[in-house]
Design brief:
The structure is a homodimer of 243-residue chains.
Chain A (H helix, E strand, L loop, with lengths): L3 E14 L4 E11 L5 E7 L1 E6 L4 H13 L6 E7 L8 H9 L9 E10 L12 E5 L10 H18 L13 H12 L5 H10 L3 E7 L9 E5 L1 H7 L9
Parallel strand pairs in A: 1-6
Antiparallel strand pairs in A: 1-2, 1-4, 2-3, 2-7, 5-6, 8-9
The structure holds a DNA duplex (27 and 27 nucleotides).
DNA sequence: CCAAAAGTGTTGACGCTACACCCATGG
DNA sequence: CCATGGGTGTAGCGTCAACACTTTTGG
């Protein structure tokens, strides 16, 4: 049993897209009194302390693998949070004591985010209760997790503009309408359909497949996939990108 | 005397522009034998452990203030480095022992970078020897500092593209040729003078002053300043920017 | 045949690239 | 008067935003 490092944790902001909203995975936190009465319940991000011989990237990967079963999930470190009073809230202190942590022990946390499609993953949460919540209706979270989430979302928007990572939110085969909707949801703006499709047509790494949607009650859409190979071959610079 | 946290440090990648090169500030590290013979000498970034009651942003600010005397230097956290073997190199272990640190103690470091004009700052290095070295001729640094520097430089280029931070490298009043040269040095590319100036003309927050260069042996150049106020009033979105 | 989403072109404004010469000053 | 950098305009091309109708399918 490897030793855990009591001063460093990793928090994973797990973004999930369900073709409708951009969600974040939250873990329910409940504090019960000795008699078993509910004292409070709220939510946290998915996080954990790291092991002593473990890199933080590995720790974040491990947490994600435990949750999803997948090894190769997109993962990005975005910021480190170390305010000395980030655990000062009385609810947080109570809760830390209840699980055997010293609330006066300073913990700094490294924030990661990852992207996945809600429909394509089955969550193995163990005995924790987890849920997907649309990012724009998330309420008050534990600790400084609202701050962490906000910063993650900012960085996500930036990185989605700068490189082809949004495909992590979609299944391998997707329609242009799904792609457009995804960008609209992430950035909370609307695109013109014709202009969007003209732009896609210029991106040679978005390749149309010999396959159409099936079983939909309207004209079936062309399916596309993202080719990382073509992307790597044809990319010029950072500013080549942007949807 | 506040207690230091032995597990967390801050490394500052201090970029300095001297109107010619983009430099990074390095600190000389020398290890002497008991007899006083030189065992080795090389360079590190400027870094330090944090205090127990101190935020990491504050710690980085403090280090910078000690060095420059200024309070309000541009400072950006860019990445955290926590590989368990980042201090495994034998030279680094020797050196840590020589200054009374346990090389087996795990230290994670949070990377910051800051931007300043070499000519406008006087360095208070204490008993350390520091020097400006052009980023593209930096040799082998101590610890994982080459990695930290590379990552800082990447992030710098990104953030310079995304917002008006390059002005931190220049004095308050500067010429367009100085600005152009700065961008050319940072990105290692060349711009066309006329096109560059047309672009600047569209940026209303680059304001021409009623003042020209003096004492130069050629046609004196118009001086400009960057107006943060105008920038804030007129900015649209992230993609509004880019030189 | 109806509902629902897929798919498609043109125009005007603007930003981008490429390119060469005269100007003002100090020495 | 010369060396040095400062300063300027145009043309062609590509990308951008704005805008409305027809097509294909399942029910």
């Amino acid at each position: 049993m490897p030793a855990i490092n009591p001063n460093i944790s990793v928090d994973c902001v797990i973004f999930g897209y369900d073709f409708k909203d951009l969600n974040v995975l939250l873990v329910e936190r409940t504090l019960l009194s000795e008699k078993g009465d509910l004292i409070f319940t709220d939510h946290t991000l998915l996080g954990n302390h790291i092991y002593e011989e473990e890199d933080i990237d590995e720790a974040a990967m491990r947490i994600l693998k435990e949750l999803t079963g997948f090894e190769n999930i997109f993962l990005e470190q975005f910021h480190t949070f170390a305010h000395p009073k980030r655990l000062e809230n009385e609810k947080d202190r109570q809760w830390l004591r209840s699980i055997g942590f010293d609330p006066d022990n300073r913990v700094i946390t490294v924030g990661y985010y990852s992207l996945l499609n809600c429909k394509e993953v089955t969550l193995h949460a163990g005995n924790r209760r987890v849920c997907w919540v649309p990012v724009n209706i998330v309420g008050d979270l534990a600790f400084d997790h609202n701050l962490i989430l906000a910063k993650a979302y900012e960085d996500l928007k930036l990185k989605v503009m700068l490189g082809p990572i949004a495909y992590q939110f979609l299944p391998r085969k997707f329609t242009l309408s799904q792609l457009q909707k995804l960008y609209e949801v992430i950035f909370n703006i609307r695109f013109d359909k014709r202009n969007f499709r003209k732009k896609v047509a210029r991106m040679k790494y978005l390749v149309p497949l010999n396959e159409k949607q099936k079983g939909v009650a309207h004209k079936p859409a062309q399916l596309y996939m993202f080719s990382r190979e073509v992307f790597e071959m044809t990319k010029k610079g950072v500013f080549e990108f942007t949807i």
